[in-house]
Amino acid sequence: MDASSSNAGQYVELGSEGALRLDSGAELARFGIAYQTYGTLNADKSNAVLVCHALTGDQHAANTHPMTGKPGWWEIMIGPGRPLDTDKYFIISTNVLGGCLGSTGPKDLNPATDEPWGLSFPVITIGDMVRAQARLLDHLGIDQLFCVIGGSMGGMQALQWASAYPERVFTAVPIASAARHSAQNIAFHEVGRQAIMADPNWHGGEYYAHATSPHAGLAVARMAAHITYLSEAALHRKFGRKLQDRDRITFGFDADFQVESYLRHQGSTFVDRFDANSYLYITRAMDYFDMAAEHGGSLPAAFHKTPVRFCVISFTSDWLFPTSDSREVVKALNAEAANVSFVEVETDKGHDAFLLDEPEFHKTLLGFLNGAADKRGLKNP
Amino acid sequence: MTPSREGARAGLRVDLLFIADLISPGSRVLDIGCADGALLHYLSSERGVDGRGIEISQTGVNACVARGLSVIQGNADTDLMDYPDDAFDYVVLSRTLQATRNPRDVLAQLVRIGRRAIVTFPNFGYWRVRWSLMTNGRMPTTRLLAEPWYSTENIHLCTIRDFTQLCDDLGLRTERQVILNHTGHDTQFRSTSRFANFFGEQALFMLSRR
May I ask the CATH class of domain A10-181+289-376? Predict the structure, then answer.
């Protein structure tokens, strides 16, 4: 996949066309969006697909990650002959506003002070992320996306796109997602944020000036969050109570169990690629997400007379964004007699299933996209 | 009526053939209990219909979506109330009414969310059913009612007379009716005739609110 997009990717500075007004009321006079593209935009610009990443994802969906050297997080989905076929679609993958892989976020310099923003960066929302992406599409001259798709927080963006810009979205595919963040999920996020803020190296968010970083806190946040992405069954299948490089327990606090060692590894590798303040801002954006609340308490009102075709997908063992969350979206869409498909995929892999090889999921998605592409007049390669 | 040949060529089940011919091209259709989506696929590809489906089995739903149909997992008893009034031109319920928990409410929902409801069901008054019960003294199993009593999904079987009585109670107007015999042909009987209830193996009704 690297042929069509370099790992370094692309970057555009926006705001000269007008400041970005945020939900908080603050404005960003200038902001940058880092993005990757895969495939080729067709002549009438009708084959663009916006891939939206989850909390700790980034724009490197289908290319080798420049920092970790690992494959892109959705290589399984994006490429020739894959559901998001790069011979057919023009895939755009952005780093969200508030992120730390190139798009403007708290670790960048505040142009007013020439100091890193830190906690003076305005609080952003899912709506703001989508607004910034819409500016990028304007810049690219794309009026309408064939599809906006994403899992978890990416699904929130897909729903927000369909709600805020219905005329700019032909199909929306929210996967393992919800129209509002649950109390349980806010609670998990708060645990993560408190872990970061309790790290003395956090320095009230101004660790950049101290040439340090709250690695320990961020690692703990990642470890706690990572548990929520898996299922009990998946953890048991992968680790059980197996011991790590030893025959018996040590009566100490080393990582005796494989599952401990695995989580520590997840935590320590995460801190190398992620900014702790970005983690605070992006988790907050998810917490604030509540589409019904923004429409007078009515979720159907968020999709009033929507022309968008939806494919809502959930996974049976996902307890972070359970099927009931997806069903709420489907109910609301039905109340608007919207064009919606809804599939619950049987799997024991938990929330992370949207990133994994799930043949039933991929087959269904491919069928949905093919059907919609026919209606949009997109040719098969 | 005699169904068109194109539907037969598409391999549609016989009651679906009759249903397909009642649906005007280009209309909005909701097929409840759409199984693998055979009718929806036919209607959308051949008749330009804007079709949606509800299916209770996840394998059915996934198969439908994988072939490009707009289908959600759900069931007639609980999910119809989500839709607004007159959301569809036609709402189809084929051989599913007898498997619902509350057929009376389901019928009322059908004519609320659709301008017309098309319902087909196996006739429990069919002579083979009666004969089977009379001679064997056991719960009848027939071609259309193949499962034994302990595993059948059909918990609310009715005869044609039962059905027309319920439609009267609900104040529904019958716009079309087709009583099919065991070879899948239109018997031409009126549903009010005793012959219909005796010789009809299955029945189709197109209903609307008065």
Answer: alpha beta
